[in-house]
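Below is how a single chain appears once it has passed through the pipeline. First comes the sequence as given, then the structure the pipeline wrote out for it. We keep one example in the README because the format questions we get most often are answered faster by looking than by reading.
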Amino acid sequence: MAKKSRPSTLSVYLYVPNIIGYVRILMNCYAFAICFKNKYLFSLLYFVSFVCDALDGWFARKLNQVSTFGAVLDMVTDKYLLVVRLISTTCLLVVLSQVYRLGLIFLSLLALDIACHWLQMYSTFLVGKSSHKDVKDSSSWLFKLYYRNRKFMGYCCVSCEVLYIILFLLANNPTENLIEMKTAADACILYDIAKKQ
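Resulting structure:
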């Protein structure tokens, strides 16, 4: 009887879904580095990274490359990348909290998002489940609908991210505000000079 071969540690790191996760991290780092310089490139990179989130799960199932490391990498990439302190939704919510006056709303959404995902991930591992998406034992009908119906989950996720991107694109650029302040200050100074003459 032939022994079933175990993948090496290196091969798990090189699973296609995990490579997609690494690319998402790099894309997000670059996107947030340029977010105020080029809003449209930022939005494109952010959205492509978001789409890759669906692709990594699809590739994991299709290529039979599902791993706990991949699940954690996916969640970390989505919510809070501690190494560089930049993450897709988390960073976008922080940016939105800075460009809108009611920033506390976005920070509250951020806290809720992190707390919910952390609690869900931690509680599923405590009861021995391999995925935070395993909700067979849940008593919440909304939770079951969200995780069991991929179309509903996709609609919720895409709608939320598109809303955040639109809010970012509609926000005034802080550098534009600085230019407007400088222009207004110059006008005041020119008025004072003209008045004194």
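The chain has nine helices and no strands.

See the next section for the split statistics.
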